[in-house]
Amino acid sequence: MYFDKDASPDDIEGETVAVVGYGIQGKAFAANLRDSGVRVVVGNRDDAYRDAAVADGFDTRPIADAVAEASIVLLLIPDEAHQEVYTAHIAPHLADGDLFVLAHGFSVRYGRIDLPPGADVALLAPKMFGKPIRQRYLDGSGVLAFVDVVQDATGRTLRRILAVARAVGFTRYGVLPVPHATETELDLFQEQFLTPLLLDAFRTAFEVLVEGGYDPVPALLDMHASGEMAEMLVEAADTGLYEVVEQQGSPTCRFGVQRYLGKLLGDEVRDKGRAILDDIRNGGFVEALSKEAEADYPSLADYTAAYRAGALTRAHDRYRAVLEGR
């Protein structure tokens, strides 16, 4: 892993960084870079995010103008917008020797953009969303990130991207070299297998309890909404999944865990995980995503309507109403 000692601010001394997109990630990246003494220009279309960047005091321009002004370009917009924005507003203004940085390898892994032959290209993928990136920087710490040199035109790509990582605060925690294709596939697998599996586990536990006659609100609190389980998972990131149960669980808890661990998810779930991973690797997911995006994400609207009408959400609404009435 790379740490602060492995990265020098001198490697981007005097360079201007264009942060393209002032959303969840862009806002945090831009603020951290500025606080580290890096000159930042924000590139964003004319919308509420642009207004936020202006209000936060950034030199904010149309994307093409921001890219033309900078020698380092960070692409921090949603994956589905990469192809159009890159082709129309970024690629024509990248000069030889510029450093083009992606926070997710999706568009390179699936060939959705053509890389500029004379520019450096790197992956810098934080393993955390924007709010903790900013907060931990302010606290004097940082978050984990993956890094990859995709294209090294100048021979200085690694040094430059590590300097960027240091300015954002990632090398305070550690930056791990991971190939961009691997980063993409791991991220998509987490989103399509692990996250829905966890959500289904919480929902199933809640429904079993309600069907068993328990009041929905305390059932929701004990399964999820008290935050106890979330705190255990946060601590497990440092101590280990099994170790946190050993260290923080009572003997009753540990007995219950070992009694059923490995017995609730069988080969059927494992086989589904393998099928999802195959779909990610062979491009089936990207094809489905493209069709969904072209139709303006109709399945997302159906999903949102369904979960908002569900018993778990209604119980959570009741609980929040009580808290808001304190």
TrEMBL record:
An annotated Gene Ontology molecular function: metal ion binding
Keyword Signal: no
Signal peptide: none
Keywords noted in UniProt: Amino-acid biosynthesis, Branched-chain amino acid biosynthesis, Isomerase, Magnesium, Metal-binding, Oxidoreductase
Binding site for Mg(2+) 2: D187
Domain KARI C-terminal knotted: 179-326
GO BP term (any one): L-valine biosynthetic process
Listed SUPFAM superfamilies: 6-phosphogluconate dehydrogenase C-terminal domain-like (SSF48179), NAD(P)-binding Rossmann-fold domains (SSF51735)
InterPro entries associated with the record: 6-PGluconate_DH-like_C_sf, KARI, KARI_C, KARI_N, NAD(P)-bd_dom_sf
Chain ranges of the KARI N-terminal Rossmann domain: 1-178
Pathway assignment: Amino-acid biosynthesis; L-isoleucine biosynthesis; L-isoleucine from 2-oxobutanoate: step 2/4; Amino-acid biosynthesis; L-valine biosynthesis; L-valine from pyruvate: step 2/4
Superkingdom, natural source: Bacteria
Record: residues binding Mg(2+) 1: D187, E191
Cell inner membrane as UniProt keyword: no
Family label: Belongs to the ketol-acid reductoisomerase family.
Protein name: Ketol-acid reductoisomerase type 1
